[in-house]
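Methods — Computational structure assignment.
A single polypeptide chain was analysed. Its primary sequence is given first, followed by the predicted tertiary structure written as structure tokens.
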Amino acid sequence: MQLFLFLCLVLLSPPGASLYRHHSREMKNRVKDLHVSDMVAPSSRKDFTFDLYRALAATAPSQNVFFSPVSVSMSLAMLSLGAGSSTKTQILEGLGLNLQEGSEEELHRGFQQLLQELNQPRDGFQLSLGNALFTDPVVGVRDTFMSAMKTMYLADTFPTNFGDSVGALKQINDYVAKQTKGKIVDLLKNLDSDAVMVMVNYIFFKAKWETSFNHKNTQEQDFYVTSETVVRVPMMSHEDHYHYFLDRNLSCRVVAVPYQGNATALFILPSEGKMQQVENGLSEKTLRKWFKMFRKRQLELYLPKFSIEGSYQLEKVLPKLGISDVFTSHADLSGLSNHSNIQVSEMVHKAMVEVDESGTRAAAATGTIFMFRSAHVGSQRLVFNRPFLMLIVENNILFLGKVNRP
């Protein structure tokens, strides 16, 4: 009998996010806590977040890109709990973990701490992160895996009759829609009749810009998708003091736009023809440099209102980062179930973001399907009227994307 296990990650961020505040001292203090390589594992060396971005961008160079690094990373970390041998090693090394004694435990403890911290009540914005496990008794989930999901990843558990695929699909999608305040609906389009488990990870984020853009200042302007392709977009504008850095080495300008609460949006504008150079230069080191080098500048900032989406089959992308066995007949997921012939057949990540005068709305979802084998000082204009990059950070990188066409 062929059985399936889905791992679904949902990430949602409505109006805004601001990590590094307007005060330079506070900005420098906050950067010390930024986990950009794999979100939570301090022993990480590889830039999983940016390696994944580059892999996603390479699949469609002229398209918009948007995804949730923390969502994908937590999904893989949960998956590693049930993996063994080289399957586990590939996942952990793909995340950038140094496989030294205690580092794996540190990874899971880091995510556990992240879950606890992000679910604390906070002023100015909403941010919640959680997991759920839908299981059918036929799968025989190991007690150790179930316990780890509950204790380390604070997962809710739900008995599910996967024999009724229509009912199971509705149960899961209704849960996701509720947890994301209706932003992610119909996360799963279908379930195989032999599906036995679905793991869900969601994050909901809602905030407003610390200083909103005035609707009256928004005007239609040109956006240069390429030198030959120009589209008209509603361009927001606001003059204020922003943290700003001109990176001459990478040929880009970076501005941090704070949200109410404790999150920040970073907008990165490459010089003309330098997008790939900037993309290739994205790293933990680069991001830390930007935050350390930020200085307050009086800017007349122009940002387009935009809404973009991304949808990715990660089972086709993650092997480029060394995570491949789990999607093949060589998968070892013996820590998940007593069935020895289980593998991941599909891992889907969907994300969207909307930016307007009041703030940012963003949502993302990742589904993994398992199956049994069968600048200058002073005021200046900064106009984002050509392709640019965007990050939303709150000590961790919640979202990362490229706006090629608003």
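Note: The longest strand covers residues 230-247.
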